[in-house]
Amino acid sequence: MTTQHLTDAELAAQPIAYWTGVAYEATIAHVRSHMAELGTSQPQFWILRHLSRHDLSADGQGRTVPELREAMTGYLRPEDDLAAESETLLGKRWITRDGEERLWITEAGEDARLEIKRHAPAVRERMHEGVDDADYITTVKVLRRLIENTGDPGGALG
User: Cα(62)–Cα(89) distance, rounded to whole angstroms?
Assistant: First the structure.
């Protein structure tokens, strides 16, 4: 689908599910490409975030792969293999595993998490290039309203 020569009325008739799907795939591909340039993956970063007491871990305690999968269920993609990703992190010594199969972030992993996080503003800036904050806010509000109008079956807003 192209919008290069469509009128505003024609654009208003475009299917939102198509465009949100295209936007999702494009933004995920952009983020994952940038993560690969940093020598990591988005799921690896998520694992580090969920194990760090300075980020998403409420208690700083280790977690098993199934516990991590449960915590990430709302944004994992079907191809994301947390067991394989955690093995990669173990190889990098960014995490360790105890006798109960719980994964723990190491000091090197915490340093890596912070370094990866340092790149996030540049990734966001690139995606938001040419989009002012007012337009972005309006877009998010419109998307939230569309979600509400569908009955929010996925629980995204609540």
Answer: 14
pLDDT-flagged residues of the chain (< 70): 1-3, 153-158
3-state secondary structure at position 96: strand
Q: Which of 33, 50, 43 is nearest to 86 (CA)?
A: 43
CB atoms within 10 A of CB 109: 23
Q: How far is CA 37 from CA 31, 32, 42, 59, in A?
A: 10, 9, 11, 31
pLDDT tens for each residue of 27-36: 999 999 999 9
Question: What are the E-state strand segments in the chain?
Answer: 95-97, 103-105
Q: What are residue 128's phi and psi, to 5 degrees?
A: -90, 5
- Helices 120-127 & 16-37, crossing angle to 10 degrees? 140
Please give the model's pTM, rounded to 2 decimal places.
Answer: 0.85
